[in-house]
Amino acid sequence: MTNQILLKGMACASLLGTATAYAAQRPNIIYIFTDQQTARAMSCMGNMDVHTPNIDRLAAAGVVFENAYCTAPLSGPSRAAMFTGHRPDEVNMLVNGAPMPDSLQTRTLGSLVKAAGYDCAYGGKWHLPELDVPDGKFGFDQIHPHSDNGLAEACAAYLSRKHERPFFLVASFDNPHNICEFARRQNLPYGNIDTPDLRDCPGLPANYEKNPYDADVIEQERTANFNVYPSAPWTPEDWRLYRYTYFRLVEKVDQEIGKIVDAIDRNNLWENTVVIFSSDHGDGVGAHRWNQKSALYEEVVNIPLIVTLPGKKHAGTVMPQLISNGVDFFATICDWTGAKRPADTAGTSFRTLVEEGDPQATHQPYVITETRFDGSRTRGWMVRTERYKYVLYDKGRNREQLFDMQADRGETRNLMMERAYEEVAQQHRDILAQFMEEHHVRPTRPALHDVPGKVLKRKAQAAYK
User: Fold this and answer.
1) Angle at the Cα of 395 (from 389 to 400), degrees rounded to 5?
2) Is the sign of the CA dihedral 267, 268, 273, 274 positive or negative?
């Protein structure tokens, strides 16, 4: 028995040594992400209302994806996709506070990357469902709790250490999420923003008014959940102040990110490190008179994605390909680190796409985002193809939306109301119906398909009974 134990220990040590040797050829990975930052809330995207010099440094050194989307526009579900590789609805994690299934807890991204020979460290907001990542669980060593105060300093200290193995560092910031407290007229967790002269506030967005055929369920959600959406009585002046505060919160977190970028500089890490910047979802920022998340408006689901390669390869490249940052992020990190990716996970790695740096390269033909409104049972889905965006909610008038994203990124003209786009609409319905079947999306009502004109297959009907 003693010999068997010794042999087993030697075998484990050999496997660990092999994994470590393999990982030594792989890059370090630094993942910096914010909470509730819409894709255009960066000055490198031409936004004159916000100044983000440190995020801009990453963009100038890296590859910027214009069409990256969250897998779900709510913190818990979005993070579930990032760190489990599963679509949230499929594993019952489509709401905040949902527990991670026992079957996934030992094969999270941190666990897989650690098994591949990496040191894994996590600082900041976890939210799966605990706000702090438990130290030593899910593959991560906790280097800082859920707080933006001191997070950047903890990450900088980690980067300054001597590392015997490659590392995977996650820096998860809370801001600009403090806009939620601002909307409720509460104190902000990391310090209030000074009230400006109204003349110094940004103007209203071009798509401030709702399109005349917007889904009415969105207004029903606003009315039903004042705590999350207190904005129904707001005046244009209220919205301008909201936008001012939101952009100041983005600038506040940008300053913290700068401390990490400085640490990368000081420790000469650019040559062997992949740095990824993103967010878990966006914010309405007053477009369509919407604050917060959950709705499938472009400002809510389109998020930043910047990837800086070792040696700053392809610096300054802008890529139009479609990325689903949650599940695709999981697949990509497994790809870069050599982690063994579970066969049942979703997502398409964008590693090769970034390394080739070709804006004309083909990638995936569409991405899908799913939502369940915060504090509600209302659900919805988005299909984003190269040119169009199709949105479906599970109830209400005008629950189908179709937009030409080349001509109308502000979503002001619902093409579902025009016969000329009937074929395009049907193509997107077909994509969504197939997705629902493949990913076992439970319909709103048993044995009834949510996609107009579709019926559940007999196998699916049986599964839902």
Assistant:
1) 25
2) positive
Reported as a pLDDT band with limits 50, 70 and 90, residue 23 is low
Residues 6+ apart with CB under 8 A from 219: none
Q: CA-to-CA distance for 254 and 249, rounded, in angstroms?
A: 9
74 touches 374 (CB < 8 A):
yes
The amino acid occupying position 43 is: S
- Pairing mode, if any, of strands 119-124 and 141-144? parallel
DSSP secondary structure string for all residues of 359-402: TT----SEEEEEEE-TTS--EEEEEEESSEEEEEESSSTT-EEE
The string of pLDDT tens digits covering residues 121-157 is 999 999 999 999 999 999 999 999 999 999 999 999 9
Q: Provide the pLDDT for residue 186.
A: 96
The one-letter amino acid code at 465 reads K
Peptide bond into 129 cis (omega under 30): yes
DSSP bridge partners of 383: 368, 390
Using a cut of 0.85, tell me whether the model's pTM lies above it: yes
The residue among 163 and 6 whose pLDDT is bigger is 163
Cis omega before residue 176 (within 30°)?
A: yes
Is 77 strand, coil or helix?
helix
34: three-class secondary structure by DSSP: strand
Which burial class, exposed, middle or buried, applies to 375 when counting CB atoms under 10 A from its CB (0-12, 13-18, 19+)?
Answer: middle
Would you give the distance in Å from CA 175 to the centre of its chain? Answer: 14
- Which amino acid, one-letter code, is at 28? N
- List of residues 6+ apart from 288 with CB closer than 8 A: 207, 208, 209, 210, 211, 214, 218, 295, 297, 411
Of 82, 190, 70, nearest in space to 126 by CA: 82
Place 457 in a pLDDT band, splitting at 50, 70 and 90: confident
Mean pLDDT (the chain) is 94
**Rounded CA separation 41/246 (Å):** 9
CA Rg value for the chain: 22
Q: What's the pLDDT band for 24 if we cut at 50, 70, 90? A: low
> Does residue 182 carry a pLDDT above 90?
yes
Distance of CA 360 to the CA centre of its chain: 24
Neighbours of 275 (CB within 10 A): 25
Task: Assess whether pLDDT exceeds 90 at residue 377.
Answer: yes
User: Tokens in use for 307?
Assistant: 């990837």
Spell out a b/e string for 129-139, using b for 16 or more CB atoms within 10 Å of the CB, else e. eeebbeeebbb
Percent of the chain with pLDDT over 90: 91
